[in-house]
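> run fold CbbX protein
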Amino acid sequence: MNTAQSHVERRITLEGEGVQRVLERVNRELVGLAPVKARIGQIAALLMVDRARRELGLTTEPPTLHMSFTGNPGTGKTTMALRLAEILHELGYVRSSHVIAVTRDDLVGQYIGHTAPKTKEVIKRAMGGVLFIDEAYYLYRPENERDYGQESIEILLQAMENDRDDLVVIVAGYQDRMDRFFQSNPGLHSRIAHHIEFPDYSAEELLTVGDLLLEEQGYHFTEAGRQAFADYLERRMQQPHFSNARSVRNALDRFRLRQAMRLVEQGGSLGAEELAAIDAREVLASSVFGKASGR
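> ok
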């Protein structure tokens, strides 16, 4: 029996129940991001097929899994890295689902001989899982001749090539800055197989994010409170330093603080509904409406 006949006769079922559970969790945790979710689903499908090909003895090369996540703050990049690590672990491409999240300060030293051990220690901790480098472009500072970021990049490049069977590196940051970063580092660009852009949330999506976050904490908007929050979002999204879901989370924390203060000052007996409801009063006290109580 020749090899071709053997391949025809042997069949295999693509097992992806664990991966499907992770993808369903992604859909629950992250509102919107349809193109990102579709791309992650495609990568998962590719890896399932690659695993099946290996099990049947077909020709295959280990896929390059290093990635770039680009987008504004609060668009779900870190959360997606966490879920992606679970998918890679489920399919056997990394030994563990752990994610080591770092920035420049964790990798680059302040004096000669300091950067190499710092970078190597981070890589050692991440080995067998995923290394997530946020705002990766800060590693490269050509305007400073005494900067040691390039040394860290070179060590990372070596690990990405030599240890790609045991380490997945995800670099993340703003789109335009990451583009310039890759132009300045062709070696890094060539090792990144998947470039995934995370779009900003719409106002409607952020309103849903707010509902879900409050629900997780055992709170909810009143009807008037939700309408006030919709108005808040329309105004806040036009202001500087808006960070999508991160700004929503911060706003909800302030609403809860104001609600607590209002209830304490109000005094008297309280029921579950009063303790759980975020009213328009909490939202309208925000600075976007001309108040002085914060954004």
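The beta strands are 67-71, 99-102, 130-134, 168-173, 194-198, 220-221, 277-278.
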